[in-house]
Amino acid sequence: MTKTLIQIINDEQVSFQEQPDVQAFNDASVAFGRNMKPHELLNEAIAQRKQMIRKLKMVSELAFVRPFPNSPYTMENFLQQMFVLHDRHHKEQIMKALRAIR
To answer: DSSP for 76-96?
Structure first.
């Protein structure tokens, strides 16, 4: 995602898959974090999100709402669907697991 943000900041051509492979993203994330301690993984996730926020602050408002070529997405709705809603889904999974161990 950071590479894509840099392309947008530099006003380069960007394209998105119509249906991003969320499961492949999840699988890669699981593999990445499998050998990390929970607090290390959480710190890494926080650092990655902070980096993404810094890059997003560099994106112009026009680029944020402009549709990507050959895609149903704008940066705004892509982030809403692929990050915000996805994070909420995982938050609910975590909350459910925590309630189960109480």
So the answer is: HHHHIIIIIHHHHHHHHHHHH
The tens digit of pLDDT for each residue in 83-97 reads: 788 889 888 988 998
Q: Which residue stretches of the chain are H helix? A: 2-9, 22-33, 38-56, 61-65, 75-79, 85-100
CA separation (Å) from 31 to 10, 54, 75? 31, 26, 27
Q: Tell me the C-alpha distance between 101 and 75, whole Å.
A: 38
- The SS3 assignment for 35 reads coil
pTM: 0.66
Type of residue at 99: R
